[in-house]
Write a structure and sequence with these properties.
The structure is a homodimer of 216-residue chains.
Chain A lengths: L4 H14 L8 E2 L1 H8 L3 H14 L2 E4 L3 E4 L3 H26 L2 H19 L3 H18 L3 H22 L4 H17 L3 H12 L4 H11 L2
Antiparallel strand pairs in A: 1-3, 2-3
Helix pairs in contact in A: 1-3, 2-3, 4-6, 4-7, 4-8, 4-9, 5-6, 5-8, 6-7, 8-9
The structure holds a DNA duplex (30 and 30 nucleotides).
DNA sequence: GTCAATGATCGTGTATACAAGAAGTGCTAT
DNA sequence: ATAGCACTTCTTGTATACACGATCATTGAC
């Protein structure tokens, strides 16, 4: 419980949204949240204002807060931006790679290999996250890293859905291999290109996304 | 006065920070702000929480809010990300250009030409902003546009400083010309490359930035 | 029977009160 | 004279109270 209640609540509610416990479009009643977490309305309001500022919810004046529903098209746009930022991170990583980052990438990469081989999509989902974070960190740009982590968080639910698609695990892992090769070879342009392809959702992957979002 | 006081205050304080009325490192006293704007502490706190979530200020538990001082290196990183996003916007604009967007770009571009010819750096500063916004809009990606506008806002003070550098006006405008040509020619890759160069601050432009930040 | 208007109820927006912690100041002791 | 400790004061964090606006339901009229 992070020192101050407002911030703790923000993380708590944010997680609830990102794990789909509060679904898009759902109304967030201040009083309900307050009693649920055993605090007064004040810190709840502060948490909601922050989530509004981040763009996770929308507070309509005098009409309460609702969880934002991005819709397939907007989610596509978010992946598009994510792809671009990851591409940049990859190209920076290739240029600036040092021993520690190299080891971090290798470690997370091999963990991905294991969970992919085991066909464990939940484990892969987690290891994949760590792998990408290792690349952000290797880019040595704090601001870029923050932006990547933030967007990555917001796209988490959709990424999870995507991993359920048949063969996506092994495809994803082989893409990882090529990315690691490019970064370790110091080939920034290639790393950028591969990451853009890996993260972006072109063609059939977009229709997979739409389909998985529809069943929700 | 945007319907609700908290949101109005957020914009107000945000502008004050971005126009350097509150300088980096400065402590923002809730009570002082409250009396200054003639409201109670509650909406002030809500505004501050939002600015904290956006990353403009930092609220340290029980020790108040201070304006974040990015420092030259971090500002450089922000420009680096901005360059990447603008590059994406440019490449999308080249692909998706329609009549309305084309006219918007042409209009803002020629306004830049006039203020550049007049050597009016303040006017150019404004027209330049509109020109870039026209490109974001032409990309037809709402999310990307929002991200660009937000980052653009945060980098405003530094961009303004940059325009004061000798010859920057005419250099900037000739870069604009090439960018417009690439977009109108439908050459997405070239538009991306040119915008990355235009927005990023490599080499001597970085030292110019550091120098201009030091005198503050 | 349907639509509109008015009133009741519920929930948000702002203010204020109270509690707890941090920083600064003054006093005392070495 | 200086360092350390305690006390005071100031500011933030949380709760609560009150007011205003929105929504919904009920009633009346066409």
């Amino acid at each position: 419980m992070s020192e101050n209640v407002g911030r703790w609540l923000r993380d708590e509610i944010e997680n609830s949204i990102l794990s789909n416990e509060f679904s898009p479009g759902e109304r967030l009643d201040e009083m309900v949240l307050a009693t649920r977490f055993g605090v007064s309305r004040t810190p709840v309001r502060e948490a909601l204002m922050q989530l509004d500022a981040i763009g996770l919810i929308e507070i309509r004046p005098r009409r309460g807060a609702i969880v934002i529903d991005p819709g397939p098209h907007r989610v596509y746009e978010m992946f598009e931006v994510m792809a671009e930022l990851e591409g940049l991170a990859g190209s920076l990583a290739a240029r600036r790679l040092d021993k520690a980052s190299r080891e971090a990438i290798t470690a997370t990469h091999s963990r991905c290999e294991q969970s992919a081989a085991a066909g464990d999509s939940d484990a892969y989902y987690y290891d994949n996250e760590e792998f990408h974070k290792a690349i952000y960190a290797a880019g040595r740009s704090e601001f870029l890293e923050e932006q990547c982590v933030q967007l990555h968080r917001r796209l988490r639910p959709y990424r999870r859905l995507q991993l359920r698609v048949r063969n996506r695990l092994s495809t994803s892992f082989s893409e990882h291999c090529a990315i690691v090769d490019a970064i370790f070879a110091g080939d920034g342009d290639e790393a950028r290109r591969l990451l853009r392809m890996h993260v972006g959702i072109q063609g059939e992957r977009f229709s997979d996304l739409v389909a998985s979002m529809a069943v929700r």
